[in-house]
Amino acid sequence: MKIRAAVLYEPKQAFQIETVDLEPPRAGEILVKMAAAGVCHSDYHLVTGDTKHAMPVVAGHEGAGVVEAVGEGVTKIKPGDPVALNWAPNCGECFYCLRDRPNLCTTYVGPLWAGTMMDGTTRLSIGGQPVYHFSAVACFADYVVVPQECCVGLRDDLPLDVAALIGCAVTTGVGAALNTVRVEPGSSIVVFGAGGVGLSIIMGAQLAGAGKIIAVDTNETKGDLAQSFGATDVLINSPDVVQDIRNLTEGRGADYVFEAIGIPAVQEQSLEAVRPAGTVVLVGVSPMGSGTNLPGAIITRQEKTVTGSYYGTANTARDFPLYAELFLKGKLDLERLISRTYKLEQINKAYADMLAGEIARGVIYF
Length: 366
Ligand SMILES: [Zn+2]
Ligand SMILES: [Zn+2]
Prior knowledge:
By secondary structure, this protein is α/β, with parallel strands linked by helices. Helices cover 29% and strands 27% of the residues. Bound molecules: zinc ion (2 copies).
C-alpha cells in the first residue's frame, strides 16, 4: 500500500513528506493505522547526527493507533484494537527479561539498530529501494507495520493522543521516578529540563509523594508549566543553580536529581546538586561519543549514586495500562502535556517549536 511518511534522507536535512510503499505485515507483524505521534527529542538526534542510523529512515517512535490487520501467528492483538507503540520490544526470555529489566532486552537490539523488522528486512521502500524503520516503529507515517512485540493493547476509552505519549515521554519520565529509583514520600527532587519527559518525572514524583520538587529550565514558559504540574520551586536561567538548589534543601542538596536533557555539563552539575548519599538519575540521552566528567573522589567520599534510567525502567506490558488507568482516574494529567498539535506536513515546524523550548509536547495527528 501507499502511505504518507516523513522521510529523513541524510542528517542535517529537513524531513521530507513522501509517498512511501508499505508491504503488508508478515508473520508476527501488525499493521497499525496511526492516530497520533509525539514529537520527541530522540528523533531529532537522527537529524543532528548525534544518533547514527541507516538512511533514508522514517523516524517517529512515540505513537498510538488502531490495528488494521495482523500477520500470521499474531494471537494477542486483533484488528480494531487500540494500541500504543513500544519502541523497546522485549522477548520475555533473555537474561534481562528474566531479571525484571525487559527495557534492557537484548534479543531485538540487532534489528532495532539496523532499522529493520526482526527478520532483517524493511517493509518500507521508495522506488524499490529500502527505507529504514527507526526503532522498529517509524510512526511519522499514517500507517506502520511493526513487530507484534511493539504493540501494547490498551482499553478503548483511552484517548489515542494520550496513548501515544504513554509510548515514550510518560513511561520514560514517570517510570524514572517510580521504577528506576522509587522516590519516597517527603523526598526532595530536582528535575533539569521541563519538557515532556521532565514534566512526566514531576508527575511521577508527585504521585510518589515527594515534598520539594525543584524544576530547572532556561525557558519561563516551561517554568510556569512545571509549576502547574506540581513543581514547588522553579529556577529559570539561574546564574548559580547548584547554590540555589542547596539553599532550597537546607544546604545539603536534593535527595534525587534527574537530568532529563542529556547535556554532559548539566549531568556534571547534577552530581553537585545531589546531597551526600543521594542519587543522580540520568534520563536524557547525551550525544553518542560524548563524555561526562564526574569526580570519583566526591562519589566515593560522599557516597553519591549515579544511575541511568532507560525508558523509565519500564515493563511496558505492565506500565502502559497502569499509566492509562492513572490518567483515567485523574491521577496523571497527561492530556495537558500536549501543548501544540500539528499535521504530518508540519513536522519541521513541530521540531522548530520543540527546539525553541516553549512547549511540553507537540503531537502530530493523522
Ligand atoms: Zn522518545
Ligand atoms: Zn528479552
